[in-house]
Design goal:
This protein starts with 15 loop residues before the first strand and ends in a 9-residue tail after the last helix. The radius of gyration is 27 Å and the shape is flat. It is built from 19 helices and 26 strands. Strand 17 and strand 18 form a beta hairpin. About 35% of the residues lie in helices and about 20% in strands. With about 650 residues, it is an alpha+beta fold. The strands form 6 sheets. Strands 2, 3, 5, 6, 7, 8, 9, 10 and 11 form a 9-stranded mixed beta sheet that branches.
Amino acid sequence: MDCSMTNKTYDENQIQVLEGLEAVRKRPGMYIGSTSVKGLHHLIYEIVANSIDEAIAGRCDKIEVILNKDSSVTVIDNGSGIPVGIHPQLGIPTLEVVHTVLHAGGKFGSGAYKVSGGLHGVGASVVNALSEYMEVEVHRSGKIYRQAYERGKPLTKVEVIGETDRSGTKTTFKPDHEIFEETEFIYEDLLTKLREMAFLNKGLLIVFIDQRKEKEVRNELKYDGGIVSFVEYMNRSRQVLHEKPIYLSGEKDDASLEIAMQYNDSYAESIFSYANNTGTTEGGTHLTGFKSGITKVINDYAKKFNLLKDNDKNLTGEDVREGLTAIISVKVAEPQFEGQTKTKLGNSEIRSFVEGIVTEKLYAYLEENPNIAKVIIEKTITAARAREAAKKARELTRRKSALETTTLPGKLADCTERDPALTEIYIVEGDSAGGSAKLGRDKRFQAILPLWGKMLNVEKSRIDKVYQNEKLLPVITALGTSIGDEFDVSKLRYHKVIIMADADVDGAHIRCLLLTFFFRYMRPLVEGGYVYIAQPPLYKVAKGKEEIYAYNDRELEKILKERNWKREDGNITIQRFKGLGEMNHDQLWETTMNPETRTILQVNLEDAREADEVFSNLMGDKVEPRKEFIHSHAKHVRNLDI
């Protein structure tokens, strides 16, 4: 852990005020993204990020996160404690400034923190504004200070409530039910994020406790291997090609870099980048530097040791990253974030910094470990051959006209509208369901593509096999974007791609296979929010002329209870649809396809790293990680039929 800041003073003079707290409660989405569960969880991450910054500065090595019985959360760290003296600019206690003034914190100057992972210093005040109440205890300079707040406003003055021999901050807050759609935290989701934070901060202990049920749930997260342990964890469901991950690190001026990387026998790359502990899902200069560096090193090494012949073409970036799991973590004093969601690192100097370290240290590693180098080079050369085979398969298929834009799949029932922004395509399992969908659709803007043949699990297949699969090829052709490095979202023919499968186990498997395909080979499709899942009903309940559709067992019971209908009543019929094909076209339109009455679920890629892990666990070769995943998540399943 970087202890270089322990000699720096953290007091009232380091807290700079940029602007007052305004409109957070009116427009919470501007500050935390949304008021859904994602936004709810974000409150915890903001407070924990402040403690993480203390850890980065070398002043904290333990953080506790506790989910309390009353739906509040407590975060405790053993850092320096938030300053409590009178603020030199505002003339009120600094503890109050930090929690009631937006953009007030120790992250803006160059005094208290060398680097900061907090999101622009807005954390504590925003969480306070969006909480029914908040109480903060600070252990500092031998005394315990306390202040309470209600919906962002102080309830009490900063007061001394006792003496202490420790230091740190304890924050308890209860999210405001007036702001959030729901206030129930999901333990497994939080655990995933906190585990990630522990991986990124080597040696930091994060204790996560859930006290909401009779039996307390407790997880202690501490990884002395840091991001090396992170890569090992991510590869636990894959067959690795070398036992230990490769670790590279370096420093220059106010920047430091850590990289951990390990190859496995899969065909997908799983590379995730972070800047100051914040996930840079849109990449940035550090990721670009890594990619260019590794491509150069692998090619140079392969040529020097005659593993790549003179007449062979250079290995591409796609070749050298096949089957690679990697974490790139940079710490930068003044990060410049770009992109719509501010998750893309823009510091231009970081590219050459990262590329230089990768070029020097990875090459040295390969020279010192020739056996591992040979395995890696063989993997990349095999990937290059498969890419060439895919190219030939693609050209052959195009010569047969199957991929020409003028020739669409024979079973596709296209729509008449030509503006992609106004159209949608239903990818439907089975000819009978496809027939009902074709009859029930609105031909103006709805296209139907029935699937047939054997679905390919792309988690276990290279791109050349994808182009030979009779079930996936029509999907590629109909969407018009191509796949892999040739993917072009501007050629997408429909801006809603809706997967419609039966509400049973087989349907769930088909959805998972299609989603895996989109995630691995058409990822911008998912990232752009173009993919949806249809929700066909599971039941039709009828009494007399009244007909109601239920989408799951829980909804069925609710319908019966609200109307005081008894199952045994002879006037009541409950029809369970075994498949889409059992519904006539009018029913399918009314329940599943009519934009006015249907419910469709948008597939969002909010956490690429977690999504990558889920697909590897569920669709990979190893059974144990799949069993572990199902066991740990089963209790959180809310609708098994979706």
